[in-house]
Structure formats: C-alpha cells, structure tokens
C-alpha cells in the first residue's frame, strides 16, 4: 500500500512506531567531522523525519547499528559469566539500496558461513528496512557497476517532498495508515558519475602484478577504508578487567582492519602481509574475487565510502579499473 501524507502525520506515525521499534537513520552531526568546522553524517536514533539526512551520503553505514564498533559479548567474575540484556524492541533502519545489499553480505559472513553468530543473529532478526531513494547517486558511488543500485527486499519506503511524505508499506506490521491508497514506484540511480569495469577473471599474473607496490608508497595503513566500509566484518577481542576487582570484567569484540599493521600477526612474530601493497591486494581480491567464488556475487556494493574517507586519495574504483585493463592487456 502507498500513501501521500503530510509531514506532521508521518511524525505521529513514527511516534506510534517507537512503542515497538527503535528508529535509526543518517543524521547530520554538526561540528563532528574529521576537520575543524566540518560535519559528520552517522546513524543515530531519530524522532522525526526532519532529523533524517536524505540529500547526502552518510559517512558510515547502518552496519554500526547491527555490528557496533565496540560490543560487549559477556561479563565475567571469578565464579560465573552473563550476557548483556538485549532490548526487546525491533529496529527500523532508514537505508539506501546499496546498504541493504551490504547487510545481505554481512548476513553471509555471520549467518551463512558455517556458523550462526548469536550476537549478530539476535539483532538481525529484529531489523526492518525503510528504503531511502538516491535517484542520482553521489560522488564516488559506483553501485550501478556493482548491480546494487536497485533492491526489492525492503519493508517500507519514505520519500519526503515539500510538506508531504510519500510512503509505500510492504510489511503489514508497519501499516498504520488510513486513507486512499496511491501508486508509487521507487526511484533508483541508473547511472553513476563513476563507472567501473570489473575483470571477468583474475589470473595469477594479475594477482601478482607490480601495480600493488604503488600502494606501499601511498597507503599509511590507517584502516579508515575498512571502518567506513559497509561490508567489512573483521573484529578483534578485548578482555577488560575492572579496577575494583581484577578477577571481574567483560569481553568485547571491536572492529579490526586488514590494512592496519598487526592484523595478521602470529605467534613467533610472523606476518602474512607485511607491506601495504600486499594488504591492499588482499582487500581488493577479497571484495571482488574470493567472496564471489564462495557466494556468487561481489562483496563490494559500490558505495564509494572508502574513496571518500581515504586521507591519501586512494581510489578503490580506480584500482578495480586497473585490474580490468590488466586483464584486457593479458588477452
């Protein structure tokens, strides 16, 4: 069902939803950007549609709602342990098409990869999606090339337009509206400013190409590309011991980055990938080769956030283009 309603009525609807749902959407955080007097767009709980940033790309994806940067897995004492309580409310996420596809990738890793992660699963089962349209796409986006520009797996759509909000509700549990239904078709980008020609195959020569050594000279190993990526899923473990009782504390999992020194450290001091070029090769090959061999589609969804975040202006999409050209030259 689809409806055209005034903004005030939609905000009332959101307040009604908040009885059973926590609502998360991209919000502009004034002055919280990387540099002085710059803003950051992050996922936060919202109360009204006016708080949602529809016209800009969020710096981080909705991943940080489902997979928190720091997540307590359990508390422990000398004698026992206990898991933290989980909020009974469901989650309604305002997300774009590429980010819905990205969560599908996280589902593959955490639920369909030989083991179901119970901490991820309990949150994922509560999630519902409200689609945010991005008709033209944004800078550095290449979702059309990655075929993540359109999506059907969403529960509702919200399109603010002047004093009104156009709403499509596909999930009956979210349908609290009354009035005459109308027809609404979701708007998806059909072309991006950035286009990527993906290699159809990657042979050993391309994988061992000297092109990767360029990144040893440029990449500083900050890991920002991994942290803003909606499909990166690696984490490390931390045990926190309380000051008032050294035998009590909590175990946390914290986001980790394959681009940061120490990620592949093993006992005895061995490292699998010592140079930034080797780490870049691993990251790229995992996103567009290894993952596809296992699940049938690319891990990268073309959101372009890694390009946006890199302080050295390293472009993931440019790297993919280089692979495509290397393949052509090899033929």
TrEMBL record:
A matching Pfam family: Fer4_22
Please give the InterPro entries that the UniProt record associates with this protein: 4Fe4S_Fe-S-bd, 4Fe4S_Fe_S_CS, Sulphite_reductase_A
Keywords, alphabetical = Iron, Iron-sulfur, Metal-binding
Q: What's the protein name?
A: Sulfite reductase subunit A
The domain of life is Bacteria
Which PANTHER family does this entry report, sorted A to Z? Answer: ANAEROBIC SULFITE REDUCTASE SUBUNIT A (PTHR40447:SF1)
All residue ranges annotated as the 4Fe-4S ferredoxin-type domain in the record = 208-240, 291-319
Gene Ontology MF annotations: iron-sulfur cluster binding; metal ion binding
